From TrEMBL:
Keywords: Glycoprotein, Hydrolase, Signal. Gene3D superfamilies: SGNH hydrolase (3.40.50.1110). InterPro entries: GDSL, SGNH_hydro_sf, SGNH_plant_lipase-like. This is Uncharacterized protein. GO terms for molecular function: hydrolase activity, acting on ester bonds. Belongs to the 'GDSL' lipolytic enzyme family. Residues 1-21 form the signal peptide. It holds the Pfam family Lipase_GDSL.
Amino acid sequence: MELLRVLVVGILISWVLRVGGEEVMASQPGDIPAIYNFGDSNSDTGGIAAAFFPMAAPCGETFFGRPVGRASDGRLIIDFIAEHLKLPYLSPYLDSIGTKFQQGANFATGGATIRRQNESWFQNGVSPFPLDIQIEHYDQFKARTSYLYNQAKEPSDRSNLPNPEDFSKAIYIFDIGQNDLAVGFRTMSDEQLQAAIPDIVNQFAAAVQQLYKKGARAFWIHNTGPIGCLPVTTVNIHNPTPGYLDEHGCVKGQNDIAIEFNRQLKGRVTKLRAELPQAALTYVDIYSAKYGLISNAKNQGFEEAFKICCGHHENGISIWCGQKGNINGREVYGDSCANPSKVISWDGVHFSESANLWIANQIMNGSLSDPPIPITKASSYTKHM
Ligand SMILES: *[C@@H]1O[C@H](CO)[C@@H](O)[C@H](O)[C@H]1NC(C)=O
Ligand SMILES: *[C@@H]1O[C@H](CO)[C@@H](O)[C@H](O)[C@H]1NC(C)=O
């Protein structure tokens, strides 16, 4: 028995080692049967909109032609990942209309944090569905769909249900943590926030462990982006003291905390590999992709990196994308720009579709991943367990 275990682990390790080279078993887009996604507005495909209020036009104008619950003019990174894996766009678990769950579900909600917060959605836009609740939703989704699938008498009774066998072959994607930092900037000193990072990262790890216990094996984990480069922050900074902004115009102190969060997250993912021997954990450096775009916008075919396409920001007053407001007696509409495809930031916080495509293209081939595995192969080293 012990020998067998050593053998299996040995095979697994050699497999992982070869993944960096060319020898990997040919695995194709289409081999991963489902995506389960957890996160915040960076990957929310309509969850928070279904739970509360719909997104306002002009969101969705570029691709969907109408607001579809995404904070962008079109597709998000998770949508490009779904396309690449030849899977349908993910339906939000919280949406009861027009949803399809055969090949995955999206538990992400705009404003979500890893840790539970004391703030409310109505005050500060903090999601009431933080990561631990998203995992609860997943548990319930899995249990109830599996029950119904196994009860079904006719194939047509299963038409909107995932095959229970696919849960262990699916890819589990995470993009969360940005709001833990954003709330921290608002409510804590830098020292307090730094001191909180180990707990935030541990609670993230607990979510991964819980999914693993329920049979999840392939995890694709985005780190957090350069939050100090969000135009909604930089637009209100005038005459900064030297060193407050970095060479590209991002708030250095905020990015330093994001970098520290990512350093600890990466370390925790490494530990998880030892704790969860059958898991394939891929850590994805989305920070570098986003910062690479922002610091090199013009060469990548974009306009000035901090331009906001949709919404209106002036003298500390913000009329958000799709909202109406009043500035000095003037009625102002948070309209969109003429050419969203040339702008990185859709609304000051979220990326435009063309920026999302650019970022997705950077990360999907594995060049920013640890280990450097393309997303199509992110689950192949657990296949024969
Ligand atoms: C929420 O408030 C409680 C009680 O004041 C405090 O102990 C806890 O640390 C707070 N949680 C967060 C995430 O700030
Ligand atoms: C991955 O894709 C990016 C963007 O197209 C490209 O710059 C990079 O060279 C690619 N890396 C690999 C290893 O294919």
